Amino acid sequence: MATPRPFFLKIRGRLSPEQCMYALVLGVFFLLITCPLIGLGVDLLYAALKGNLDLSTPFLLSSRRLGLLAASIGLAAAVAFSGIVTGVLLVSLLWRASRKILVVVLLAMLAFAAIPPYIHALTWSSLLGYVTGFLPGVPVTGWGISYWVEFMALLPLATLLSWIAFASVDFHLVEAGRVFRPDMETFFKILLPLSAPALGAAFGFLFLICCSDYSVPSLFGADVYALDIFAQFSATGSSALASLYALPLMVVTIIVMIACRSGIRTLAQTPDWLSARFGTAPRFPRFFVGLQAIACGIIALQILILFSGLILTTGTLSTFTRSVAMAHGELTYSLLIAAGVILISLPLALAAAYELRQPGLRGAVAWILVLLPLAIPASLTGIGMILFWNTPGLSMLYPGLLMPILVSVARFAPFAAIILFVQLRFIDPILFDAAAVFSRSRLETWLQIRFPLYAPGLLVAAGILAALTLAELGATLVVAPPGHGTLTMRIYNYLHYGAAGEVAGLCLLITILTLMAGACTIATLYWLYRGPGRAPEPDGRKSE
Amino acid sequence: MNKIRTIQILAVIVVLAVILIAALVMLPKDQKKTVVVYTSVDQVYSEPVFRDFENQTGITVLPVYDVEATKTTGLVNRLIAERNRPQADVFWSGEFGQTLLLKNESILAAYSSPSATDLPRQFRDPEDYWTGFGGRARVFIVNMDKLTPDQYPHSVNDMLDSRYPVNTVGIAYPMFGTAATHAAALYSYLGSEKARDFFSTMSERQVRVVDGNSVVRDLVADGQLAFGLTDTDDACGAVEMGKPVVIIVPDQQPGEMGTLVIPNTVAMIAGSPHPSEAKTFIDYVLDQKTEDSLVSSGWIQIPSRDVPTKTACMNITGIKVMDISYQDVYTGIPATQKDLIEIFIR
Lengths: 544, 346
What we know:
The structure holds 2 protein chains of 2 kinds. Chain A is mainly α. Chain A contains 22 helices and no strands. In chain A, helix 7 runs antiparallel to helix 8. Chain A starts with a helix and ends in a 15-residue tail after the last helix. Residues 531-544 of chain A have low confidence and may be disordered. Chain B has 11 helices and 10 strands. Chain B has helices spanning 3-25, 43-57, 73-81, 97-104, 177-190, 192-204, 213-222, 232-240, 275-286, 288-297, 326-344; strands spanning 34-39, 60-65, 90-93, 108-109, 131-143, 169-172, 208-210, 227-231, 245-248, 261-269. In chain B, strands 1, 2, 3, 4, 5, 6, 7, 8, 9 and 10 form a 10-stranded mixed β-sheet that branches. In chain B, helix 4 crosses helix 11, helix 5 (177-190) packs across helix 6 and helix 6 runs parallel beside helix 11 (326-344). Chain B is globular, with a radius of gyration of 23 Å. The termini of chain B are far apart.
């Protein structure tokens, strides 16, 4: 009788320990991001076999649902496009910024990206209420105001993503263009086309986030398809039926993400994430300078309205300290969740990023598995987690403290994988070959070669993971263990109660914490790589 | 980078990882006396009840709260998803529709609490799967700066009155929460056709439909709406904060239908991990003293029995209550929600 031993000896002969580790890490990554889908899929199958479902639901869209879907796509596309255009104009100003100013601006964008969109909505709603006292004709409901507030809420993230896109372009090419042509022509004919694939990917991210958000539009009376999904979910109590209703929206978002993926794969330049840009400041024509000024005005307005709204509503330092004291448990737990998501997601996402580079069917399957979780609405992700983990054999983790971490990993680790994929495409593999020849140990290779080369992508991915995790509510609420809640849950509880001061105080706290975390990370990286052991230039040369 | 720096980096990573794992793993496990309560009652009201219960009984309460922003889909659907392996012991809701849904889904277990013997019959499920107590009423919150007393609304039909300009009247989405329960009650009382006409006209009149009762309260208090339909706890909150608002109980005239009073409901979960503690908690919540404390805190405005504390923000004496059966209301909810989704989400 055959025994397992020869089989495993054969495997060991064919696979190195590194390959086994890679396969294991990859398996864990894909399991963690697809477990909600698996849970929902099994539930759907079970309901279908019992005959409880009308499987034609996603295919026979009524005119009402078609209209909602079209409106949602239109709103998301408009918000994403406006965000990218404004982000590009803002980032074009950062061309001549020093590294310090660049870091401050990017940290600020990251901090504001961590504030839930609903808070932006309430701040603008209050402002509009105040303005209508003087100007009664100002619209306070409808698609226009919904578009504006959604755009404001996503603008910090759009700016961050636009900067990543611009940083992906080798500025030597742009400088070469500037020698022969005016700066404006260089901008439109060299910089924009080279950054266009990454900008397309950024568009896809923003489109995805906007499509699945109903909190902002519903506050301003604009009904979107995501709200219809939840209305059906609430009416039926059936996750299987809600999954069917969500399918058309998921198909649309997956198509958009696949289109963006094509753009990401064409990237071919070297990123210079945090270097100073150009020796001479670019000279743009007046109309472009005017557009840049408008973009600056918009972001300044966004920051002013949000920050002043939060500060004014908080009122006094005692309100702020009281809200922090009352929420210290949620604060600690939220920070632990964000740290846990980063620690778990980044190593797994790095392995997934390598898999995304594989050609042919293997790479295509990896891309599909990475993109699918992005299309599932938050509450359904949470329900899917319960259906998967609350089963005999897997129940040791549910409903434990790790569940909110795992649900955020399921939702956001794909973003980290895509960011790191972009990073990997810019690293010359010859550097790793040289390290393998000259390094004394694997640990030394990792610490002195690989980690510094991965560091910029890891940093960006960590920041975006932290921001998205801190603002996450829909899925976390469903899996939070009894007796524990996050800061965002406390904020929404206070919102309902009407404790506006405490809500504003906690939102300010999130902003401050994100700024501090980002600053600490940047400072740590500078401390690690200052002096003789400085980080090498992206092409492997050490800077003088 | 030299060896010392390498060691420093490793040390920092190891310390961080240890702290994180220790913080996550070191939670109070295997509490001998614990009860897990899933509640849609606002945290600011339910938390003091939990603390008092813990102090009196020594049983630790592990609560799971709901938030209005997720339209109550989170909690109830979590309970349904956990049905094969329940994590909750008790479900305490601020209304009855979701409780009846859970009973229908066989999520609840029957328990007849001795604390419920003095509660009115209509607040107790015939099969003892749930028990209701003190609640809230559906009321108008009116901005006194926007409307003079002779313009105040007095019936839900006034929401369709053309004397109120477009977009100055508000309700919460009638597919979620207590607004959904109220809508189902109207369908039950008026009949499907009349109720459908009512809500269709409301949509055509561009009554502003917003995210929740608290949003209605805030918009009226801010002056963005002239008046809106909300719950008494939200309305009283605005009064207590000194906002320029007044509370009107609708449909109180002779021949009118009265207003909906929505009781709290509490129920035990079938297969709960801590059934004994669950019963102790249910007995505590249904006790008259707890109801009195909830009136005092502002969660309950319409107590189900005579309690020492009186509602301060409004006069509840002689309130005319809508004469409907909770079971009939619940039975009509799915069809009502289907109608209202078609009317309001487009």
